[in-house]
Amino acid sequence: MIYRHHIAPPRAFTQFSHELIRHPRLSSDAVRLLTWQLSLPDGARESLSRTAERAGIGACAFTRAKRQLKEEGFVHERRVQGAGGHWVTQQLLSNVPLSQAEAAKILARMPAGASSTAVSPQVAPSPRIPAAGAPTPRPTDGHPRKDPGENTSHRPAEPERKADPGPGPETTEPPEAARALVAALPHLSPDLRRIPRGMHDELARLVSHWLAAGHTPAAIRTHILRGLPDDGTPVHRPGGLLRYLLRDVPPAPTPTAEHPAPTRPSSRLATLRECEGDHVQATLFRPTADETLCRRCLTHQQASPSRLV
């Protein structure tokens, strides 16, 4: 059994309705925040955030409590421009729920809010410090003090010098081979499927530099695959990664009489196999067994076997 003992306070108390204290949609923090504010003396301008700090209400709990009070009509806010052009936020708290129209009528009777410091309309200029020495008049003759030694009345006009425009943006169209290679990059690896269409021209110009330096398309694709992460890290910006990989063009390998020792492929390339199906560019895929066709070609073959060569 629960017994209750109540003694009315002789001073410093505030009356609240049972509907407010037992409100079903207000948390304990919201009720504490509202009752604390309503118990402040007349003329107090303590903000809700300051009240929450004094009441020991955390940041997340304060945000949730304030949202509940605004949804139930106990708290209303508006932004107004006060003296000196400063914008202030007015907060209205009530012990009963108010609609937007009722709160607007009450706030309309409130002053826009004056700043604690007076705002001067214009800052007066500071007194000027005179320069050292006596003032001297301006020279008004405008003639050269020395004889130039030659007739300068009818000098021939010098040719106008054109400013060096400097290296401007590349306007040459990339070759079709570079465009085709960039268009086939999404089929090279799943990490390159989301290349922005707006970057195709830029990537094609970078690829054209590689082709002009003597690199083959296969060497470019191998360089790109080696630059992809091989630990399963997802590539969130494939366009930026390709720009980084193709920005610096290394010299093309010179053919030698002796065959160089084969380089060991990375762990990512070691598990890939080139598809024997009909593709515009060489397509690598990761087989699960001894298949020689990628999943797309295998599905195409099962649907129409005669269309694959």
3D architecture notes:
There is one protein chain. By secondary structure, the protein is mainly α. It has helices at residues 18-21, 28-38, 48-54, 59-72, 100-108, 176-183, 200-212, 217-227, 238-247, 267-270, 295-303, and strands at 75-81, 87-93, 273-274, 284-285. Strands 1-2 form a two-stranded antiparallel ribbon. It has a two-stranded antiparallel sheet with strand order 3-4. It is flat and about 105 Å long. The termini are far apart. Residues 114-124 have low confidence and may be disordered.
Kindly list the characteristics that best describe this protein.
mainly alpha, flat, 309 residues, two-stranded antiparallel sheet, 6% strand
Number of discrete helical segments: 11
Radius of gyration: 40 Å
Percent helix range:
25-40%
N-to-C order of helices and strands? HHHHEEHHHHHHEEH
Q: Main sheet: which strands, in order across?
A: 1-2
